Amino acid sequence: MKYVKLTAKPDTWFKEGTEVYDYNCRPPEQLLRVTLEEWESCVNFNGIKGICVCGFRIPQLENEIDIFEEGERWDGEFCSVDEFEVEIVDEPC
What would the DSSP string read from start to end of 18-71? Predict the structure, then answer.
């Protein structure tokens, strides 16, 4: 089975340069990359070309900063497929 390594581009939801994972994984024990099959179905979808993934982001909204202060936060989000650098790999993580 093939997977995709998705790395966040600048100025997107997730922290630039960090890898994002399948939305249903349980970090940090069970990180799992998105399958190539799932990725291709999102890219070739006839509507909004997006995918649900999770990873680290830096809180930016005022209420988040109050709760999480400074630093990184694990979060999930539906993102456009063009927000990531994509590399096809053999390893699930």
Answer: -EEEETT-BTTTB--PEEHHHHHHHHT-SS--EEEEEEEE---SHHHHHHH-SS
Q: Is 46 exposed, middle or buried (0-12, 13-18, 19+ CB in 10 A)?
A: exposed
Segment holding 87, helix H or strand E: strand 84-89
Which helix H or strand E contains 7, and what residues bound it? strand 3-8
Confidence of residue 16 (pLDDT cuts 50, 70, 90): very high
The residue among 70, 64, 86 whose CA lies nearest residue 19 is 86
pTM: 0.86
Question: What is the biggest distance separating any 2 CA atoms in the chain, rounded to whole angstroms?
Answer: 42
